[in-house]
Design a protein that fits this description.
Number of helices: 22
Bound molecules: ligand C2E, magnesium ion
Distance between the termini: 91 Å
CATH topology of the largest domain: TIM Barrel
Shape: rod-shaped
Radius of gyration: 53 Å
CATH superfamily of the largest domain: EAL domain
Strand content: 15-25%
Largest sheet: 8 strands, mixed, barrel
CATH class of the largest domain: Alpha Beta
CATH architecture of the largest domain: Alpha-Beta Barrel
Helix content: 40-55%
């Protein structure tokens, strides 16, 4: 920065200096011209007041009278003696010198001028002529050799008619004028010096601050080019650079490097329903957690949206990387408080190792991405890349057309997960959960394609398909599942449609299924998006006999006042609270209070994510009505349900018999 500034300072000094020179030069020539013009004034005054009155209106002849000469001597003597005048001469109109104060009456000029003919001629025709000249030493012994003088030829006007009778020739010393000019120049140089110096300082100050601002701006631009504005983490560009550096070093030194891609699950839902502000706050918090956890030498970056990247240098073997990333994932799952609401995030993580899975940035990133995609699609959490994964090309899957076609081609399937009464063990309902039986990639879970469906609006036809399929399935099961209700999940975007309730009622009417066998699971966050419209739709459905359940309760910000105005039948406690309620006091407290709250409002409570007997017992003790989870059963294909129900009933029956 100093170099730039010094360059500018020197560069600006030159024009300022040149400007000073020009100003000084023009002042100096003005001063000389002023000197000559002062001389003219003096000569004109002298001619009018002192010389002309000595003559009559007659043209001067070849000689002056003695009286005239005496008068001229009287008049010019003291002025010449005091040095005010160098020489005073009177000429007739032909240029002949009739009188000269120095007695030199030769016709040619007394100064060193080549010839005065021109000037004298002009003066003879009434012109005033003045010029700066150098005195001739031998003609002017009183003056220093080469001294400068102002030489003036002034018409002599006399008589009542002011006729020109002759020419007054006057040499005035230039020295007094010159010393005036010199004194003026001194003051001028000083003022000019100060003025230009200040000007230069001002320019320098402006340039200094401009340079500083530019530097700061450049530094900021450089920072922004490499960092994410929201989280302050390195961005994709810097991430790729770090991966390149790490892999190049690894190839040289034999080090190991792991490259991971972390993608948040269902982040879009948070953004859509709770607003971008809260989405951003969640991202910032998670970014800090990641940044604080990975050690020095490793890099966390935000690759865009809800995707983060990780470079781990020398992370140990595959198992070590796996457990490090699993730990990170747990960290991300820990509740985040955003605007006073507890939010739980989840993430899918894929990783690739250098050199085993690739040695270039492109390979490693693409492989980590594919692995992440597999993690998301298979609910595996953390997945290492495997060449067999390559048919999961995430970008290909993003193709909307494929999903549209999937619905038409019946590639979607519903799996059903039972919900059981906690106290009796009786199955009261099944939840329909959609999967995509992809021809190349196998069974895909909703996290892999629901976000795309929601973004593109395909969710509407998807939900129509789910509803119709589930209702048709009830009919197909027939007596095998007598009395069981089927729950289907409704997206925020479905609920936002003005014809939502009509389309559900139409599907029900078409299927002939009793409305009270249909349960709609709506996430708490979906209700908040447009509470008024949601309220209207739900009331219509309730009037028709359809039951409504609030899914993933505890994640959102629904006010109790609002909830109590809705025609609800069931609250489902989010599985993130249930899964660890025995180890996490605050989650246990949430489960307990949701149960109390739901009962006070007259709703049944479902706990989802029940994986162990201990949790089931704890829920029973708390008075929870219904449990759903892997302990009871994983979601299963429709065909498997009747048989499963059969074994479950006979187990429950034999248990009851054993107790009796
Ligand atoms: P959800 O409605 O909360 O569904 C429960 C999810 O938890 C299911 O995941 C289920 O397989 C899983 N789960 C059940 N028991 C346990 C357990 O004991 N432990 C654990 N860890 N998980 C358990 P799934 O099927 O992947 O569905 C994920 C989400 O996708 C659903 O969450 C729901 O919000 C959405 N979804 C699924 N099917 C549909 C659908 O047809 N339409 C819409 N709009 N959304 C759907
Ligand atoms: Mg559900
Ligand atoms: Mg749920």
């Amino acid at each position: 920065m100093l170099r730039l500034f010094a360059m500018y300072a020197i560069a600006s000094l030159l024009p300022v200096f040149a400007l000073g020179m020009v100003l000084a030069h023009s002042y100096r020539s003005n001063a000389a011209a002023r000197g000559v013009s002062e001389g003219r004034t003096e000569a004109s005054l002298l001619a009018q007041t002192s010389v002309s009155p000595l003559f009559t209106g007659k043209r001067l002849g070849q000689q002056l009278s003695d009286d005239e000469i005496a008068a001229l001597q009287r008049m010019s003597g003291p002025a010449v003696a005091s040095g005010q005048i160098v020489r005073l001469a009177v000429r007739n109109l032909s240029g002949d010198v009739l009188y000269a104060s120095d007695g030199d009456t030769r016709p040619d000029a007394n100064a060193g001028h080549e010839s005065d003919d021109g000037e004298i001629g002009e003066a003879a025709h009434g012109e005033v002529v003045s010029l700066l000249t150098r005195l001739d030493a031998d003609r002017n012994p009183d003056s220093p050799t080469g001294a400068r003088a102002v030489e003036i030829y002034q018409p002599l006007l006399a008589g009542p008619a002011h006729r020109q009778v002759g020419i007054l020739e006057l040499y005035l010393p230039y020295a007094p004028i010159a010393s005036d000019v010199t004194a003026g120049m001194g003051a001028l140089y000083r003022d000019l010096g100060i003025g230009l110096g200040l000007l230069w300082l001002l320019l320098a100050a402006i340039s200094y601050s401009a340079t500083r601002r530019l530097r700061a701006q450049a530094a900021r631009n450089a920072y922004l080019a490499e960092h994410d504005v929201l989280t302050g983490l390195p961005n994709r560009a810097l991430f790729q650079q770090r991966v390149t550096e790490a892999t190049e070093r690894a190839v040289r030194t034999g080090e190991q490097v792991a490259v991971a891609v972390i993608d948040l699950d269902r982040f879009k839902e948070v953004n859509d329903t709770l607003g971008h502000g809260n989405g951003d706050a969640l991202l910032i918090e998670l970014a800090h957690r990641l940044g604080d956890t990975v050690g020095d030498g490793n890099t966390v970056a935000r690759l865009g949206g809800d995707e983060f990247g990780l470079v781990l240098v020398n992370p140990g073997d595959v198992d070590d990387v796996h457990s490090t990333l699993t730990l990170l994932r747990r960290l991300l799952q820990q509740e985040v408080e955003v605007s006073g609401l507890p939010l739980a995030a989840d993430a899918s993580i894929g990783f690739a190792l250098c050199p085993d899975d690739g040695t270039t940035v492109d390979d490693l990133l693409q492989h980590a991405d594919v692995a992440m995609y597999v993690a998301k699609a298979t609910h595996a959490g953390v997945v290492r890349y495997d060449a067999g994964h390559d048919h999961y090309d995430s970008s290909k899957l993003a193709l909307v057309g494929e999903l549209r076609r999937a619905i038409a081609a019946d590639e979607l399937v519903l799996h059903y997960q039972p919900k059981a009464s906690v106290s009796s063990g009786d199955i009261v309902a099944v939840e329909a959960l959609v999967r995509w039986n992809h021809p190349e990639r196998g069974l895909l879970y909703p996290d892999a394609f629901l976000p795309i469906a929601e973004q593109t609006g395909i969710i509407d036809s998807l939900t129509r398909w789910v509803l119709a399929t589930a209702l048709a399935q009830i009919d197909r099961w027939g007596h095998a599942v007598d009395g069981l209700a089927v729950a289907i999940n409704i997206s925020a975007r479905n609920l936002a449609r003005h014809d939502f309730s009509e389309s559900v009622l139409r599907a029900l009417a078409a299927s002939g299924v009793a409305p009270n066998r249909l349960l709609l699971e709506i996430t708490e966050t979906a209700l908040v998006a447009d509470p008024e419209r949601a309220g209207r739709s739900l009331r219509r459905l309730d009037t028709a006999g359809v039951r409504i359940s609030i899914d993933d309760f505890g994640q959102g910000q629904t006010s109790l006042g609002y909830l109590s105005t809705l025609p609800l039948h069931e609250l489902k406690i989010d599985k993130s609270f249930v899964l660890d309620m025995l180890s996490d006091q605050s989650h246990a407290a949430i489960v307990r209070s949701v149960i109390d709250l739901a009962h006070n409002l007259g709703f049944e409570v479902v706990a989802e994510g029940v994986e162990t007997e201990q949790i089931l017992d704890a829920l029973n003790a708390l008075g929870c009505d219904i449990a759903q989870g892997y302990l009871l059963a994983r979601p299963m294909p429709a065909d498997a349900l009747p048989a499963w129900l059969g074994t479950h009933r006979s187990n429950a029956g034999s248990a009851a018999a054993a107790m009796a």
